[in-house]
From TrEMBL:
It comes from Salix viminalis. Residues 219-231 have a biased composition (Low complexity). Residues 209-218 have a biased composition (Pro residues). This is Adenylyl cyclase-associated protein. Residues 292-429 form the C-CAP/cofactor C-like domain.
Length: 452
């Protein structure tokens, strides 16, 4: 099946290159029927049959909410296929038109997000992994390097980072239990990030002549055709991108986004207080090597804060209880979240400070070092995973918070004193435990230290 997919993709690329050289488009030659049989749409259908089929098969074995969210994912992919067809029949939309164009996809994404709200189910990690991965499907809104978002392949990879945290939890939880859950989690990842074989043997080169050196990498949406001998067949979503990006027809009908339409220049989307951005600093904030800094609301549901270095004045103040906040790859920065949100995740951050009011579900800290988190309102759950050095500041309203730790060290919790004017009282959470086998099972107690 995968070999046939590669053959069809190569044929589709050749067709798109020919169209690009002639300056033609699929829309000109047959309307809806031509759009349905367009190489990019055909490639997307093959991609769904091959890669989503694995997710669906595993979801059917598990059933329940996992099957339900898998079916929502199928709906989203079907909507995206229809949008691909519509692109080839739609003239240049303005900003409002682009939002209307993406509305069907956004509605399906909201349906998936609603499954993660409220009381946690036994399959919360499955629901979060699927729902967070839906942001990757917004790659279809990419209209050029000035549109305010990463290129499609980079956007999918960045979006998967948000889902991978929960996907990895599934792999750990069901490692020695039900293999269907492992199959589902691996298939979900392969849907977005192709996994290359580690055991397959490389094909022997023809003895007649040495292979020429590869050409320099071209732009994803370059109209120039690349040399067939140097192009490698791609898998999963990358194959679809290669198919779509081989020519201009997919994005030719969309209007170029002007400066005032970019996410980073829109006050209603960035969530950053403009006045504070102009304050002078003793040191100029640097940029992360991992990618450009981001602070934006994606698809109206997820605040993404990424690669912020040395920024002490980050603020999200236009949020609601249905939105989530994902903080990734930040260093020596401080973020304030004003208002109630559904959940907050801090991932791979160093010396990061977070101040928030209320969360509906949980505040999660994973793969971090030297972070400080202050809850000024309430939070049902705070989880700390694979983190060294974490200071948690709880308010009087959040003393009932359930704190979960795993693979952590130097976790301190500061709580209010008995009187309003008292200083905060610091408590160190145990990181060493004694396991004793008694009456047929192990009993675990934290190590206690005493001193004069």
């Amino acid at each position: 099946m995968e070999e046939r997919l590669m053959v069809r993709l190569e044929s589709a690329v050749a067709r798109l290159e020919a169209l690009s050289l002639r300056g033609g488009s699929v829309v000109e030659s047959g309307g809806y029927d031509a759009a349905v049989t367009d190489p990019s749409v055909v490639a997307f259908e093959d991609f769904m049959g091959t890669y989503f089929g694995r997710v669906s098969s595993a979801g059917e074995k598990i059933g329940g909410q996992v099957l339900e969210v898998t079916k929502i994912l199928e709906q989203a992919l079907n909507v995206q296929k229809e949008l691909l067809i519509k692109i080839k029949q739609t003239q240049k939309p303005d900003l409002a038109g682009l939002a209307e164009f993406l509305k069907p996809l956004n509605e399906v994404i909201m349906k998936a997000n609603s499954m993660t709200e409220g009381r946690r189910s036994d399959f919360f990690n499955h629901l979060k992994a699927a729902a967070d991965s839906f942001t990757a499907l917004a790659w279809i809104a990419y209209t050029g390097k000035d549109c305010g978002m990463s290129m499609p392949i980079a956007h999918v990879e960045e979006s998967w980072q948000m889902a991978e945290f929960y996907n990895n939890k599934i792999l750990v939880e069901y490692k020695s239990k039900d293999p269907s859950h492992i199959e589902w989690a691996k298939a979900l990842k392969e849907l977005y990030l192709p996994v290359w074989s580690a055991t397959a043997k490389a094909k022997a080169a023809a003895p007649s002549a040495p292979a020429p050196p590869p050409p320099p990498p071209a732009s994803l949406f370059s109209s120039e055709s690349s040399s067939p001998s140097s192009s490698k067949p791609k898998e999963g979503m990358a194959a679809v991108f290669q198919e779509i990006s081989s020519g201009k027809p997919v994005t030719a009908g969309l209007r170029k986004v002007t400066d005032n339409m970019k996410t980073k220049n829109r006050a209603d989307r960035t969530g950053v207080v403009g006045a504070s951005e102009k304050e002078s600093h003793t040191s100029t904030p640097s940029f992360s090597k991992a990618g450009p800094p981001k602070l934006e609301l994606q698809m109206g549901r997820k605040w993404v804060v990424e690669n912020q270095i040395g920024r002490k004045n980050l603020v999200i103040d236009d949020c609601d209880a249905k939105q989530s906040v994902y903080i990734f790859g930040c260093k020596d920065s401080v973020l304030q979240v004003h208002g109630k949100v559904n959940n907050i995740t801090i991932d791979k951050c160093t010396k990061m400070g977070l101040v928030f009011m209320d969360v509906v579900a949980a505040c999660e800290i994973v793969n971090c070092s030297g972070v400080e988190v202050q809850c000024q309102g309430s939070a049902p759950t705070i989880s700390v995973d694979n983190t060294g050095g974490c200071q948690l500041y709880l308010s009087k309203d959040s003393l009932g918070t359930s704190i979960t730790t795993a693979k952590t060290s130097e976790i301190n919790v500061l709580v209010p004193g008995a009187e309003p004017d008292d200083d905060l009282v610091e408590h160190a959470l145990p990181q060493q435990f004694i396991h004793m086998f008694k009456d047929g099972h192990f009993e675990t107690t934290p190590v206690s230290h005493s001193g004069g």
